[in-house]
Amino acid sequence: MITIMSDVVFDALNGAAKRSVSLEPEQLLFNQADDVSVVYLLQSGALDLVRNQENGDRVILRQIKGRSIIAEASLYSPRYHCDCVCVQGAQVRALPVRRVRTIFRENPDLAELWAAYLATELQAMRHRCELLTRNTVAERLTGWLNWNGALPPKGQWRHLAGELGVTPEALYREISKQGLR
Phi, psi (5° rounding) for residue 31? Predict the structure, then answer.
């Protein structure tokens, strides 16, 4: 049901978007503190929303894959609260914020679906925050598996380690210890 809601919202916004952007791995779509003037819609590829820490660490706030709305909370903010980095070659479309707000004002049913979508995103973010408070790699991995169902393909484990806030080596050891290979 959540996918259906987000698909309806995505399709409505995507149909109104006019400008397209192509991104290569490691290319930034936007930087933290950039002014928000457009809402971005991921058509294909993968992006990370990241925040760089003062000590040089990079925290992955969210990984975005496939068709998705990027940094949806920024629709209600004057500036982005994180960087958006391309992980896998991506195609993105852009829609002015004013146009998005007009679309929601003119279509209350769509606005309600948008609110439901934002609620599910908030729930997922709260779960992620809860995972990051867990003390051990085993606890974090178990919580992640309970929420997501299964490990991603082996080539994505390094990224999962970043999502869990652990080193890749610690994650690999835990995967092996739990017999998940």
Answer: -110, 155
Residue 82 contacts residue 61 (beta carbons within 8 Å): yes
What does the pLDDT look like over 122-179, one tens digit per residue? 888 898 888 889 999 999 999 999 988 899 989 889 888 988 889 999 999 999 999 8
Maximal CA-CA distance, the chain: 54
Measured between alpha carbons, how far is 92 from 20 in angstroms, rounded to an integer?
A: 6
Question: Exposed, middle or buried by CB within 10 Å (0-12, 13-18, 19+), for 93?
Answer: buried
Decide: residue 92, CB within 10 A, 0-12 exposed, 13-18 middle, 19+ buried. Answer: buried
- Residue recorded with tokens 């739990």: 178
Q: pTM for the whole thing?
A: 0.77
CA 73, CA 62: separation in Å to the nearest integer? 12
